[in-house]
Each structure stands twice: as structure tokens, then as C-alpha cells.
Amino acid sequence: MIKFRSIVLKSTFSKRMMLTLFTFATVSASAMAQTEQPFSVTGNLEGLGNQKVYFSTQYNGQELKDSVVAKNGSFTFKGTIPGMVFYGLRFGQNKFLGLPIDAKEKIKITGNVDKLNEAVITGGKHVAVWKDWSKAWTTITSRAGVLYKMMDSIAKAPNKDRKYVDDEFVKLNDRLVDTVEAFVKKYPSSPMIPFIIIDRFINYPNPEKANSTYAALAPEAKNSIYGKELGESLRIASKTGIGVTPSFKLPDREGKALSLASLKGKVVLVDFWASWCGPCRKENPNLVKAYAKYHDKGFE
């Protein structure tokens, strides 16, 4: 059985996720059955010089990367997309700009490469929604940063009580949920909103909120690229959540096919993990202990 897990903000705001504005949702092939249309992004940024500008996105089941070389701070990137797709632009090694781009748009970016948060972006009809969300998200992550510093301080002084920090993380997680719900109400038709729901409630599973916010979307948002992906994710989740487990077969340790149905009548734990996953491997000894303790009682 595959179940959603409730993840509080302490996990959501791991240091690895401080770049979450540039984590891109993957769009299924079925969601992409639309006619591709051209778009262009033209930029003029002080301090960019002749560096490369990298464009990244994920859709149609694959990650797409491309780049252009700027000349005296100016660059033009062209491509085709079937609807609004979220791109991440990287300048150099650590300068990023998130950019929602829709079909047929001609977007212009002006400003300074060292102050991308102040860049002027025109020609993109979804940029205002993204900037609004980015502002709200920055407020939340700033508070998370303060709490992480407090956690580091507690780690150096074990006698300190960490209950306050834990409680504050819970409050901040609630604030994040409230913020997403507020954006759904504010922009129910925007194709940016399903992207945000996927990033917050699918990538960090919160099935209850994922379903309720999806239900509140206007048809235009549900029919967008990310709206279709969100709907498909929820449809799949409804079949693999708590309830009757779908039948499947997988090879056992000897390579022989083992069906879940063959274990009927036993308490079965199905754990999917990857060999490169450090936390997964650390948890394995606990699974071995549980198996040794309860195997005689029907645990598989």
C-alpha cells in the first residue's frame, strides 16, 4: 500500500529546498496534447556581459535544457510550447530567475544580473501572479531561516528546550497552507496556481489540501498544462491511497515474480526505496528488526 505522508515545515523547508522556486513540476504526456506555439524571451541585463543564460523546464515526461550566449548583456531565446510552462533561468552559477511563459508571448527582461528580484519583466501575462507568490514565499522562507538558526543553536546546547521551535514550525506550515488557499481564491483561473499546488501539496504530500484546492480552481486553470497534471496526480493517488490495494507483481530477491495477492491474509509492508537514498538505507535496520519481531505473527 502506498500512502501519503504528512510532512511538516521542518522537512518542507530543508536547506535543499531553499531553491524550491526553481523546482519544476513534471507534466504528463497526456497533458501536452495541444498544439505547440512559438515564444521568445529577450533580455538586457547590466553585469551579464557575454555569459551563457541557461533555460530549464520539465514537461512531456522529460527535462528540457537549453542555453544562449549573451552579447554585452543582451540575449534572445526562442522556443515552442503548448501553453503556460514554468521556466527557470540561470545566469552564471548561482543567479536564478523563475519565469512563467505562455504560448505566443514575447517577454522582455531588463535590469541588473545582480538584482534579478528587481528586474522589469514585460510581455508575460502570468508574471504578476508569480511575483505575488514569490513575495509571499520569500516571507515564509525568511521566517523558516530564522527557525533553522534557532535549531542550530539548540543542537549546540542539548539542554535547551526545542519545543518552542517545533511549535513555530507547525505554525509556519499552517501559514503556508493558508497562503496557498488564499492564492487559489485570489487567482482561481490562473494556470500558475495548479503549478503552486503541485509544488506545495503534491511534491510534499498533503492529499486533503491538494484535493480541496484543486476543486476550487476555475475550469481555465483545471484545463491548463499543470491543471491537467494535477488532476491526473489526484486521480492516481485516489487509487493508491488508503483502501483496497491494486494488484501487482514484482520480482523477489531470487528474481521470481511475487504477486501481492499471494500474501493475502498476512500483514504486508510494501516499502519502495532507492539504493542511493541515504535516509532510506538508514531506516533499513529498523525494518529488519520489525520483520524479525513480528514475522511469526504474519508480518511480511
Concise synopsis of the structure shown:
This protein has 300 residues and is of the alpha+beta class. Helix content is 38%, strand content 21%. The model is unreliable at 1-27 (pLDDT under 50).
Could you describe the 3D structure shown?
The chain starts with 8 loop residues before the first helix and ends in a 6-residue tail after the last helix. Mean pLDDT is 84; it is low at 1-27. It folds into three domains: 34-123, Immunoglobulin-like (Sandwich), CATH 2.60.40; 130-240, no CATH class; 249-297, no CATH class. Helices cover 38% and strands 21% of the residues. The strands form three sheets. Strands 4-1-7-8 form a four-stranded mixed beta sheet, with no helix packed on it. The protein has a four-stranded antiparallel beta sheet with strand order 3-2-5-6, with no helix packed on it. Strands 9-10 form a two-stranded antiparallel sheet. The chain is an alpha+beta fold and 300 residues long.
